[in-house]
Design goal:
18 helices, alpha/beta, 11-stranded mixed sheet
């Protein structure tokens, strides 16, 4: 492609600058974007609304923060009139009747121009980029490798040079994980930073919306546009509206930082720990932060939390379950059956106790340090078709391939459900043993999930490559220190600039 025909390969903020300088127009950019999307083999988009986008581009207000910038919307967020399948065959053919308030803010306050919706994992339940309804989304850095999830297509579209702006959501790492795998910045703010309205579930209170970014200033400007109180989501927080303006204004020298390449007992792949150590040391040297030792002991609550979180999916599916079971991916179906069999008040009580323990462990840690640095993912992007990052036999493999067979597994789970009526503590015991036997329950998302449970801000920063594939360095901060995290990321961006798009896309 020529420079005019190719979509903008810089960040979204510089595209707005180009519009204002008359270097290109929103309509020219959109035509280039459409051409790139139609010729792409990444499988990033599941719906395209080019006709409406062309109408908006013709009258775009380039004085707005993202005025005229083509934007992609993660398919788990509704846009009125667009398909709203939640990446599941269960809702194939359903159209959204309303638009999420987050997306409305991006359009009405930001001036962004939505061009279509991007792939996600089914109901956002897995950190992978493959579903029954959409197939496999590929990593722009290397076809055949995962993008992670659940914000799969958004990460592929931004890293792959198709659009410079895309929405994401993070309930256990779903912005940071794909950002780490595709060389993007992935910011998960303090819980409540961006509205989840109009239908904001009040449990498990772990989800935060945001975007996949090529630059720190893109993420900060995004917060200027989308953050703030929404009466339809009582968890939302006040916003200064000065996120971009205040970039680089917070002193970092003397801030205490702990470097723990792995947390939550997640096993890292060879070379990752040393890589994170090296990148973290570069950040510390550039900022004048002070490295301190920290012991962080976190309880393993992945299994209990997994089954508890299925409550919102039960509400979503309604009376379609269990008739719709065959339409679900194996992982979601087994998760649903497991949850119905093992979740009771005792399990809920143990999960809440573990969450309190986790909160207290994080609080103690942030009494001692200002930041914690760790890896975002256990290693570089794995095979695109895989359902976990672990090469070890997973619980899902056991449930699908055991001598029971599928129906035997269902019978066994039903038996557990009956047994739990007379031994209510049995499910929680079994879940604890399951977490120990099947480490895949904590490997994917094990490094990111704690910040969703505790609600603190965390950012995945592009930090070089291993074997030619991106590695994300994650930095965690205490609640409401989002501005400081932006400045930490900015310091690293200046010290070690990263490619804004995958090398194969530019």
């Amino acid at each position: 492609m020529s420079a005019v025909e190719q979509p903008w390969q810089g960040d979204a903020c510089s595209l707005v600058d180009a519009f204002r300088a008359g270097e290109r127009s929103p309509l020219e950019e959109l035509h280039a974007t459409i051409g790139a999307i139609e010729s792409s083999t990444l499988n990033a988009f599941v719906h395209r609304d080019f006709t409406a986008a062309l109408e908006r581009a013709a009258t775009a207000d380039i004085t707005m923060p993202f005025g005229g910038v083509p934007a992609a919307i993660k398919e788990l967020e509704p846009v009125a009139g667009w398909p709203f399948t939640e990446a599941s065959m269960v809702f194939k053919g359903r159209l959204a009747t309303e638009t999420s308030h987050h997306v409305l803010r991006l359009i009405e306050r930001g001036g962004a121009n939505p061009v279509g919706s991007t792939t996600a994992s089914e109901f956002g339940g897995l950190n992978v980029s493959v579903t029954k309804i959409n197939g496999v989304t590929h990593n722009p850095w290397r076809s055949g490798r995962t993008v992670g999830g659940s914000s799969s297509g958004s990460a592929a579209a931004v890293s792959g040079g198709l659009v410079s702006l895309a929405t994401g959501g993070d309930g256990g790492g779903s912005i940071r994980i794909p950002a780490g795998y595709t060389g993007l910045l992935g910011m998960k703010g303090t819980f409540g930073r961006i509205t989840r309205a109009p239908h904001a579930f009040m449990r498990p209170n772990t989800v935060l919306f945001g975007n996949l970014s090529r630059s720190v200033r893109d993420a900060a400007r995004y917060y200027d546009v989308c953050a703030g109180v929404d009466s339809y989501d009582p968890s939302t927080l006040e916003s200064s509206g000065q996120w971009e303006a205040r970039l680089g204004t917070h002193p970092l020298a003397g801030k205490r930082v702990a470097v723990l390449p792995s947390i939550s007992d997640v096993k890292l792949e060879p070379g990752v720990a040393a890589h994170i150590e090296q990148q973290a040391q570069a950040l510390i040297a550039a900022t004048g932060m002070v490295r301190v030792n920290l012991r962080l002991d976190l309880p393993n609550l992945a299994a209990q939390w997994m089954v508890g979180n299925m409550a919102t999916l039960v509400a979503d599916l309604g009376d379609r379950w269990p008739k719709c079971a065959s339409l679900l991916t194996d992982e979601i179906e087994i998760g649903m059956r497991l949850s119905h069999s093992l979740y009771n008040l005792d399990t809920a009580a143990v999960a809440e106790q573990l969450r309190v323990q986790a909160n207290e462990a994080m609080a103690r840690a942030f009494d001692e340090v200002d930041f914690i640095i760790c890896a975002t993912n256990p290693g570089p992007a794995f095979a695109a078709e895989a359902v976990t990052s672990s090469s070890e036999r997973s619980f899902i493999d056991w449930a699908k391939d055991s001598s029971f067979g599928r129906y035997g597994t269902r019978a066994a789970l039903f038996g557990m459900r009956l047994a739990s009526t007379v031994a209510p503590r049995l499910p929680s015991t079994l879940l604890g043993q399951m977490a120990e036997r099947f480490p895949d329950l904590v490997s994917m998302g094990g490094l990111t999930m704690i910040s969703n449970l505790y609600g603190n801000p965390a950012v995945s920063i592009p930090a070089g490559t291993i074997d030619g594939l991106p590695i994300g360095m994650q930095v965690l901060a205490p609640h409401h220190r989002d501005e400081l995290l932006f400045d930490v990321a900015l310091a690293f961006e200046r010290e070690r600039p990263w490619p804004l798009v995958a090398p194969s896309a530019s």
